[in-house]
Amino acid sequence: MSTKRFENQVAVVTGAGRGIGEAIAKRLAAEGAKIAVVSRTESNSARTADAINAATPGVAKPYAVDVSHFDAVQKAGDQILADFGRCDILVNNAGITRDTLAMRMSSDDWDVVLQTNLKGAFNFTRAILRAMVKQRSGRIINISSVSGLMGLPGQANYAASKAGLIGMTKSIAREIASRGITVNVVAPGFIETDMTSVLNEEVRKGALSQIPVARFGATDDIAAAVSFLASAEASYISGQVLAVDGGMSM
Ligand code: NDP
C-alpha cells in the first residue's frame, strides 16, 4: 500500500473539529489528500486544519457550517468545490447524541438528532454529489453506529438516525454505482471521544462487557476503515456496512 494513496485527491470530512472526524481528516491528509475540515464551530475546524497544515503545509482549509441547514451546506459545498476544484472523498461524520428514554424524549431531542445525523449527511451528499458524478469517480462514507444496527436503550432518536443512514447509503449507492462512485457505511462501536467521555462508570463497564475484543476502540481504528473504503482498493465495495466495533454487533 502506498502511504500517499490519496495524492491529488480532495476529501471533505464533516465533524472534523474533534474526535473521530479529526482522526479521519489527519489520516487522509497523511496519505496525501487535501482536506476540507468541516465542523460546527470555527475554532474547532481551524484547530484541526492548523494541526494538519503544521504536518503538511497548505493542504487543509477549515469551514464552519451547521450540517443540519440545507441552504448553508449547499453554499459551503460550492465554496469547497471552488476552493479545491474537486471532491474525491466525502466523509459524513458529524453527529450528536441527546440520550434519554423514549418515554421522556422531547420533540426537540428527536428533531435535532435526526436533523444533524441523518439530514446533515443528506445535505452534504446533495452538495457534493453532482461534482463527483461529473468526475465519474468518488467515495462517500457515512459514519453510522452499532446503535443503528442493534438499537441501544436511551437512543431511540440516535439509533433511528444511524439506521436511517444505512438505508440512505444503499439507495444512493444504487443510484450512482455506474458512475464510479461508491457509498458505504462505517459503524463504530464504543470509541473513546468527547461523545463517550460523558458516560458514567457503570455505563462504560456495561459497554465493555459486551465487546468481545475487551477494549474500547480508538479513533484511529475508525480512520483506518474509512481510509480503506476511500481507497482504490475498495472500488468493488458499495452499499456495505463495515462494523468497526471489536465484535460488539456480530
Ligand atoms: P464528538 O462529539 O467528539 O465530535 C462531533 C463532531 O461533530 C464535532 O467536530 C462537532 O463540531 C461536529 N458536529 C456536531 N454537530 C454538528 C453540526 N450540526 N454541524 C456540523 N458539525 C457538527 O463525536 P465523535 O467523534 O465521538 O463521533 C463522530 C461520529 O461518530 C458521530 O457521527 C457519532 O455518532 C459516531 N459514532 C461515535 C461513537 C463513539 O463511541 N464515539 C460510536 C458510534 C458512532 P464541533 O467540534 O464544532 O462542535
Topology at a glance:
Blueprint: E1 10-14, H1 19-30, E2 34-39, H2 42-55, E3 60-64, H3 70-84, E4 89-92, H4 107-135, E5 138-143, H5 146-150, H6 156-176, E6 181-188, H7 194-197, H8 201-208, H9 219-230, E7 241-244
Parallel strand pairs: 1-2, 1-4, 2-3, 4-5, 5-6, 6-7
Helix pairs in contact: 1-2, 1-9, 3-4, 4-6
NADPH dihydro-nicotinamide-adenine-dinucleotide phosphate binds at residues 14-15, 17-21, 39-41, 44, 66-68, 93-96, 116, 120, 143, 145, 188, 190-191, 193-196.
Structural class: alpha/beta
CATH superfamily: NAD(P)-binding Rossmann-like Domain
Q: Helical region count?
A: 9
Number of strands: 7
Largest sheet: 7 strands, parallel
Q: Ranges with pLDDT <50 over ≥5 residues?
A: none
Give, in spatial order, the strands making up the sheet with the most strands.
3-2-1-4-5-6-7
The radius of gyration over CA amounts to 17 Å
Instruction: Provide the helix percentage.
Output: 40-55%
- Which CATH C-level class is it? Alpha Beta
The total number of structural domains is 1
- The whole-number mean of residue pLDDT values reads 97
**Proportion of residues in β-strands:** 15-25%
The CA-CA distance between the termini, in Å, is 28 Å
The name of the CATH topology is: Rossmann fold
Small molecules bound in the structure, each named once: NADPH dihydro-nicotinamide-adenine-dinucleotide phosphate
What is the H-and-E element order? EHEHEHEHEHHEHHHE
Shape: globular
CATH architecture: 3-Layer(aba) Sandwich
